[in-house]
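Structure first, sequence second, as always.
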């Protein structure tokens, strides 16, 4: 089994439900404030938690990213400096992405 398949299967697992719940406050905030906290979090993880690189990927001033990460911490009540928290949020994003993909497939005629 390749990694992509393994992650897709994991993302569909009901075991990720508690991790998915960690992302919900960010989704709500993004929707209500037309912001990009989820996109910011994805870029942060894609940059291996390197804030400067993530800011570059998002075309932000590098001082803007710590502000957004702080906001994510406030909304989730989690400390992104903790490697376990980062893993939990990555699992939540995985579950969210898999759920979104499944919803897109359900909407197709």
């Amino acid at each position: 089994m390749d990694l992509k398949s393994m992650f897709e299967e994991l993302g569909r697992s009901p075991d990720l439900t508690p991790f998915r719940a960690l992302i919900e406050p960010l989704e709500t905030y993004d929707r209500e404030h037309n912001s990009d906290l989820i996109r910011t979090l994805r870029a942060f993880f894609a940059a291996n938690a390197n804030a400067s690189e993530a800011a570059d990927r998002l075309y932000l001033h590098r001082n803007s990213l710590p502000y957004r990460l702080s906001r994510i911490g406030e909304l989730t009540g989690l400390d992104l400096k903790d490697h376990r928290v980062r893993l939990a949020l990555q699992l939540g994003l995985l579950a969210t992405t898999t759920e979104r993909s499944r919803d897109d497939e359900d909407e197709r005629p």
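Margin note: The helical segments are 3-11, 17-33, 37-46, 51-58, 64-76, 83-107.
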